[in-house]
């Protein structure tokens, strides 16, 4: 089959490397920052466009946009009707959640924040909604209590290429079945920015734990402030250190060696991995 790929980032790159040995890639749409994808396209002499496909005249810049199937993986741009209608057979998106739950951006990060024990990958038909098309197939991926946003990404890198190929085989053999999503069960979570990562020390420590691990490296990290100075936190753990309930939440109560022990409403945490350009002291209050 002739495939059109709409891909971005390392996840899209991993899928492209897998598919090139099994299908014919007619063209690639990507973004200007996905340099691995662009370099690979140049090396293999594959037609590609790096930029927003909504710009006028983009579809005229590539010599041949014919394909039987369009595959979208981690693509940064909204896919409009003129692209959805390009393939002869079907346009499929691979979304990093078990739809209809967690429609929207970075769904695995939201899943960790919300203390979910599983996420997954959904292959679904592309329509003009946001992750609303009929489901073709799903694969469950467990979330352990120590998983981070980064570790789930690594699981995705291993699972996505094989899953995409499996779905393509079902398309080629015409054995796939589609199931409409139950919109009554749908949840949607929006795009996250760096400034969305601030910790609220009045949260229960379990929520703070999930908040930190969800946004740890390679994401920008959860953060807090001390006297206007930003502190980026990538890993915490629970502490049994005692406290008085009237002490303000976010107070540094002590140090375990060089690791600050911070009060929350229902127990203390230790800042195991953090970046701070100034010295922290007992009784400092994080905001």
How are the elements arranged and paired?
Blueprint: E1 2-7, H1 9-19, E2 24-30, H2 35-44, E3 48-50, E4 69-73, H3 81-84, E5 90-95, E6 103-104, H4 107-113, E7 118-125, E8 135-142, H5 149-172, E9 188-189, H6 205-214, E10 222-226, E11 229-239, E12 252-256, E13 259-264, E14 267-275
Parallel strand pairs: 1-2, 1-4, 2-3, 4-5, 6-9
Antiparallel strand pairs: 5-7, 7-8, 10-11, 11-14, 12-13, 13-14
Helix pairs in contact: 1-5, 4-6
Report the span from N to C terminus: 55 Å
CATH architectural arrangement of the largest domain: 3-Layer(aba) Sandwich
Average residue pLDDT = 95
Order of helices and strands: EHEHEEHEEHEEHEHEEEEE
Oligomeric description of these chains: single chain
Describe the structure in your own words:
The protein is α/β, with parallel strands linked by helices. The protein has 2 domains: 2-189, Rossmann fold; 194-275, Roll (Methionyl-tRNA Fmet Formyltransferase, Chain A, domain 2), CATH 3.10.25. It has helices at residues 9-19, 35-44, 81-84, 107-113, 149-172, 205-214, and strands spanning 2-7, 24-30, 48-50, 69-73, 90-95, 103-104, 118-125, 135-142, 188-189, 222-226, 229-239, 252-256, 259-264, 267-275. The strands form 3 sheets. A 7-stranded mixed sheet has the order 3-2-1-4-5-7-8. A 5-stranded antiparallel sheet has the order 10-11-14-13-12. It has a two-stranded parallel sheet with strand order 6-9. Helix 1 (9-19) runs parallel beside helix 5 (149-172) and helix 4 (107-113) runs antiparallel to helix 6 (205-214). It is elongated. It starts with a strand and ends in a 12-residue tail after the last strand. The model has no long low-confidence stretch (mean pLDDT 95).
